[in-house]
Amino acid sequence: MNSYLESLNWRYATKKFDTDKKISERDLNLLVEATRLSASSFGLQPYHVFVVTDPEIRTQLKEVSWGQSQITDASHLFVFANKKTFGPELIDSYLSEVSNVREIPQEGLKAYGDFMKSKLIPLPEEVKESWAAKQTYLAVGNLLSAAGVMEIDSCPMEGFEVEAYDRILKLDEKDLTTSVVVALGYRSEEDETQHFKKVRRPKESLFTHI
């Protein structure tokens, strides 16, 4: 656990990446798998993750990301896009996976499926979208922690134009919308931010034991 905490202290929101250093295919696969294994409400994972390396697309994204250099300079860019709405098919597809992986007849999952549908399907559309967006942040947390343990630098980002991202990545066609972006790679020696002491609220003001 000490080494894990050391990894969390080591990581920071990298402002300047080394453009010459790239994440290996092996490490990229580990980051993808760590993201895939993230927790989500009911296990439904109502989102999709785009791993963007295409230079032309990333240049377009930088223009609608306040000109932030991380978008183009990092080795890889993970774009998390949540579902804007959903119906019973989201739950049915998940239950199909449960049936296949756990070798359980789908009929035995009907009651659980009906319960999930009773809680999620009647929600207003804006609540559904907000709920789906929240799930992406659970996955982002997993990605950042995994990257820290692997000593891969990261920068989670919200400074971008959502509608422009959706247009560039053609998310409307998939009924998705961008929620958060994570740049991943290796810090530049010129990034002065790496030398700043980490600042977090003290335990006394952040936690209450009851």
Task: Describe it.
With about 210 residues, the protein is of the alpha+beta class. The chain has a single domain (about 1-85, about 130-205), classed as NADH Oxidase, CATH 3.40.109.10. Helices cover about 45% and strands about 15% of the residues. The protein contains 9 helices and 4 strands; from the N terminus they run ααβααβαααβαβα. It has helices at about 1-10, 25-35, 55-65, 70-75, 90-100, 110-120, 125-150, 160-170, 205, and strands spanning about 45-50, 75-85, 155, 175-185. The protein has a 4-stranded antiparallel β-sheet, sandwiched between helices. It starts with a helix and ends with a helix. The model has no long low-confidence stretch (mean pLDDT about 95).
Annotate the secondary structure layout.
Elements: H1 2-10, H2 25-36, E1 47-52, H3 55-63, H4 70-73, E2 76-83, H5 88-102, H6 110-120, H7 125-149, E3 153-157, H8 162-168, E4 176-185, H9 203-206
Antiparallel strand pairs: 1-2, 2-4, 3-4
Protein name: NAD(P)H-dependent oxidoreductase
Organism: Muriicola marianensis
Cofactor: FMN
For this entry, give a set of tags.
210 residues, NADH Oxidase, 46% helix, four-stranded antiparallel beta sheet
SS field, number of helical segments: 9
Approximate shape: globular
Radius of gyration: 19 Å
Order of helices and strands: HHEHHEHHHEHEH
CATH architecture: 3-Layer(aba) Sandwich
Keywords: Flavoprotein, FMN, NADP, Oxidoreductase
Pfam family, one: Nitroreductase
Cofactor: FMN
Domain Nitroreductase: 9-186
